[in-house]
Amino acid sequence: MKDGFIWKGIHSNEKKFKIISLPSISTFEKREDKIIVPGRNGYLINTDNTYEGEVKSVEYDYFDDKFDDIKKWLTGSGEVIFSNEPDKYYKARIINKITLDQVLKKFHSGVVQFECQPFGYFIDGKDSLELEKPTSLHNPGTIYSEPTLTIWGTGDITLEINTETIKLTGVNEYITLNSELELCHKEKIHNQGFRMYGEFPRFEVGENKISWKGDVSKVVVEPKWRCL
Question: Which domains, ranges and CATH numbers included, belong to the chain?
Answer without folding.
Answer: 5-118 (2.40.30.200), 124-227 (2.60.120.860)
